[in-house]
Amino acid sequence: MFLGIDLGGTNIKVGCLDSQLALIYKISQATNADMGPDVVVDKICETVDMLLSENGLTMDIIEGVGLGAPGPAKIEEGIVISAPNLPQFKNIPIRRIIHERLAKPTVFENDANAACWGEYVAGAGKGVRDMMFFTLGTGIGGGIISNGELIHGFSDNAAELGHMIIHRDGRPCACGQQGCVEAYASAGATAKRATEAVEAGAKSSLKKKLKENGEITCKDVFGHYAAGDRLATKIAEGTSSALGLLCVNLLHITGPQRIVFAGGMIAAGDILLERIRHHFRQHIWPLKEEPLEICFATLGGDAGIIGTAALALHEYERNL
Amino acid sequence: MFLGIDLGGTNIKVGCLDSQLALIYKISQATNADMGPDVVVDKICETVDMLLSENGLTMDIIEGVGLGAPGPAKIEEGIVISAPNLPQFKNIPIRRIIHERLAKPTVFENDANAACWGEYVAGAGKGVRDMMFFTLGTGIGGGIISNGELIHGFSDNAAELGHMIIHRDGRPCACGQQGCVEAYASAGATAKRATEAVEAGAKSSLKKKLKENGEITCKDVFGHYAAGDRLATKIAEGTSSALGLLCVNLLHITGPQRIVFAGGMIAAGDILLERIRHHFRQHIWPLKEEPLEICFATLGGDAGIIGTAALALHEYERNL
Fold this sequence. Notes:
Two copies of one chain form a homodimer. By secondary structure, the first copy, chain A, is of the alpha/beta class. Chain A folds into two domains: about 1-110 and about 300-320, Nucleotidyltransferase, domain 5 (2-Layer Sandwich), CATH 3.30.420.40; about 125-300, ATPase, nucleotide binding domain (Nucleotidyltransferase, domain 5). Chain A contains ten helices and twelve strands. Chain A has helices at about 35-55, 95-100, 110-120, 180-185, 185-200, 205-215, 220-225, 230-250, 270-285, 305-320; strands spanning about 1-5, 10-15, 25-30, 65-70, 75, 80, 105-110, 130-135, 140-145, 150, 260, 295. In chain A, the strands form three sheets. In chain A, strands 3-2-1-4-7 form a five-stranded mixed β-sheet. A five-stranded mixed β-sheet of chain A has the order 10-9-8-11-12, sandwiched between helices. In chain A, strands 5-6 form a two-stranded antiparallel ribbon. In chain A, α5 (about 185-200) packs across α7, α7 crosses α8 and α8 (about 230-250) crosses α9. The longest helix of chain A is centred in the last third of the chain and has 22 residues, at about 230-250. Chain A is globular. Chain A starts with a strand and ends with a helix. At the A-B interface, α8 of A face α8 of B.
């Protein structure tokens, strides 16, 4: 069996996979990120122990461990350089630490890549060799599988797919650039664009939401879009059109067979998926046929633990 | 030794490399593309024979052959699906044909990827594992090396880097899309944007060029830019800024260590390179340091024959 550890700013999730990539057991506990790396490491080990003992297992049956964490990081060394959601993690060699504590071969991957790998081996990416993966949440994260392997790039910074500039000198992005796709099409940006428009006086059924709840969420936007509100339609179309354009550009770069969208925003459902596909078709090279499947992720919140455990299995098989 | 064959619409170039990737002999002949595949294949074999006999060699010392041709193509099968510059090539299994004629292991690659591989192993890409490559000519072609291998993508259509959309609903591109980087920053588009502006009445020293020569070339634009002409400056800045933005986006996707520009337009020299670097720095994520080297190719017109021969060597070593 293989353990997958998904270290997030809020929760530590641990899963146990068999060699067929079936998720047998899983558990989740609060990270206590603000208490610093030592406490978080203890918490990880405690969560692993809890998962094993609750299910009558011991470490003896574990062949390898996969660990995912937010970045930027040095992937091969398994060092978290810094992470906004893990504030005291500065150059923490988390892979080595966990390897020493659990005494099992341990591989490290950044969280978005780990979730991408999970979908690739056991979710919406099954059966393809070339895939791109997006998480649509507060920001936009990504992962790229090319010819069956994750792309890391020279500085382990590849697949920062939310920070492709699609509008030169456009909306400011949290990263400091202008016009990033994240500044238009993340759940956060979708909510923000709607809020700005309502506050600027646009007529919309969303106005009531803002008054009642003090905020407009991305979910509100897609709900009111489905109900036919004109502003919500404009905002949601802006989001899906930016994502469709992104698909066009990425098809011309690494040539994926399938693009998989994940994250909270996909709760918007078929209406979002259909519009992304529509805008993709509107923008793509019309002079030749380019097959591309655009779909939603299927593993939900388990993608990270499945992906990290599967990476541990991948490494194990590589070393056989 | 290894033979590299660079089949273009105008010329067939053949080169002979030793196992240290030194280009020992080369030769070039007219393709006679309009006479169809049979004649072109004969011409290729004749050119190979000529290279060998002129230098007192025989096929015995050739361990493998690399063949590059314009696409779209099926890379592994070595089939040219169609090629604007080779008008009668429709689903021609050129790799198999050349393999049978020359009786040597033969690998196939599309021309831009082959030139990319040439620069990677023996030119401006030496010493890196992650590189992107652009040819700036009439259009913009590209190649991507990730972790030491070319990226082909699912349909062998990866690295169509000129067709990234940088301006939504922007200038029409020959591919049928709108707002492609090729529609702004190729040599062809640079000349065209300048011509359009002059014809629309813009004041410029380029006006005389248009009158005298009946056209404005990309070379003219960069020449008049260097001399301080205002319109030429605006056009050239538009070109280099689109290329700088492209570098930003690609850094966030496959994370190259080095981006190499090739093709006729790099004759514009340091002024172009400096401006691309400038616009890259203007647009890049300012919140973290991201090292990226931007430079010009060094192999000129030999990149294709060096790249194809080097791919034959790469395949030979893989099979050892």
